[in-house]
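Task 17 of the worksheet. Students: predict the tertiary structure of the chain below and write it out as structure tokens. Keep your answer in the requested format; marks are given for formatting as well as content.
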Amino acid sequence: MFELKEKSEIFEHAIGSNFFRVLALKPEEFDNLKNALIGVLPDYYVDPQSIAGTLARLGKPAAAQKLLTKIPEVKNIRSGDIGEVLATDYIE
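Model answer:
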């Protein structure tokens, strides 16, 4: 989807018996990737409030309430989500 391998410089490192690959996005690709993420990220999320509402309408109010009590209230809890989307795309 994002073609990160083609848009990045790849550096390989070995530390002891561990092998690491670092992808550094080429500066000229930043805006393209940013715009692609803006278009894709909303599709990765379903609003927990919407799920809870659906559960309640389906006659599962206890499940809806449980979901609502488990949702983190801190806004930055999703700070790693972009990395997860990019890593998933790279692995696939």
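Marker's comment: The longest strand covers residues 8-15. Residues 46-75 form one domain.
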